[in-house]
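2024-03-11 09:14:02 DEBUG pipeline.ingest accepted 1 chain
2024-03-11 09:14:02 DEBUG pipeline.ingest length=385
2024-03-11 09:14:03 DEBUG pipeline.predict start
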Amino acid sequence: MNELQDVVNAFGPAYLKQHKLPLHQLKALTAIENCRTANLGGHMDECDECGHIHISYNSCRNRHCPKCQKLASERWIEQRKELLLPVQYFHTVFTLPGLLKPLTRYNQKTIYGLLFRAASQTLLELARDPKYLGAEIGFTAVLHTWGQNLTDHPHLHCIVPGGGLCATGKWTDAKKNFFIPVKVLSRKFKGKFLAYLREASEAGELTFGSDRHQHEQRADFNCLLNQLYDLEWVVFCKESFKNANSVIEYLGRYTHRVAISNHRIKSIRNGHVSFEWKDRIHNNQTKLMTLTGPEFLRRFLLHILPGRFMKIRHYGLLSNRNHVKVKRCQVLLKCLTRLAANTNTNTREFLLRRLGIDIEQCPCCGSGKMIRRRKFNYQARHLLQ
C-alpha cells in the first residue's frame, strides 16, 4: 500500500534542496519520514510458548502523521465522554473566504487564531441574547485547513450542545433547529473577524510577504478589507446528532484527522502522486487526482500547523476551567456521569478495554504471551542528510 511516508521519501530530499522550509514543516516531514522505522528505535518481543519473534518500531507521534492518530483519537474520545449531556447536538462550520488565502499563507498562526476568536465570540454572544437562547453555552471547536484536493480551505467545526445554563442557574433547552439563524451567525462572524483582522494589522502583527513600502501594503490591505466586507461569508449548520455518544465518536474522527490519509494515496510513479478525493460540487463523487511529487508536497505542507498551535479548543461551559458548571448541568439533566475510566493507564490496558485488542497476545499461536527481549536505540536520520 502506498503511504504518505513513501511520498516524503521519494520527493522530500529534492524538494528541500529547492525550498527553504520553516522549522515546524521540516520537523513534521522528518517525523513522517522516520515513523515506525529502525531510525526511531524499537523493540523485539518473543512468545513464551511458541517462540514467535515480532519486531516493532516506534512511532513519531507527530500530529500530522497519518500513522499516529488512532490511539490519540481513542484516548481523546474516552476523556471527553464524561462531559456529555443528554441533549441534541448541532454541528456548525465557519469558513474563511478564498480571498484570505494569500494573507493566511504568510500569517497562519495569526489568521487561525482570529478564526477561533471570531467564531467562538459569535456563538457565545448570540447564545446569551434572550432573543435566541438567553443562556451560557459550551462547545468544542476543531480547526481543519484543507479541502479534499489538498488546497488551503481553513474552516472551523463547532459541536454545540442544544441548550445552556441561564442566569437563574437552570437549564434552557434549544429548539429542534439550531437556535441561531445562519444569516445572523454569518454576519456577526464576518464583522468580528474583520474587526480583529484590522486590529492585528494596526498592531503590526501581519506580514504581507513583500518588500514594498508600507503605504502600498496598507492600500492593498484596505482594498482587501472592502472586498471581504462585500462578500457573503459561509456558515453552515448540519443536521443535529441523534444522541450524545454519536457526537463524540464523530468528533473523535474530526479532531485527529490529517490533511490526507494513507488509504487515499493510490499510486506513486513516474514522478507523480495519484490520490482519491471527493468532489463536493458534484454530489461528493469520488475522483482521482494526479499531481507531480513536488506539487503534492507543496499542498501537504500548507496544512502543517505552526508549533504549539492548539487546533482543538473548548469554550464556555466546556472550557477546562468550567467543569464544575458542566457537572451542574448534568445534575439538572439527571445524567451525572461517573468519571471516565482512568485514561492514564498504559497502552496495553487501554487498547484492551477500549478496542478489545491485546497487544501482548501472540499473533501466531494465540495463547502465548509476548515478552520484551530487546530494545533498539533511537537513530533518527533527517531529510537533509
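2024-03-11 09:14:41 DEBUG pipeline.report The two ends are 26 Å apart (CA to CA).
2024-03-11 09:14:41 DEBUG pipeline.predict end
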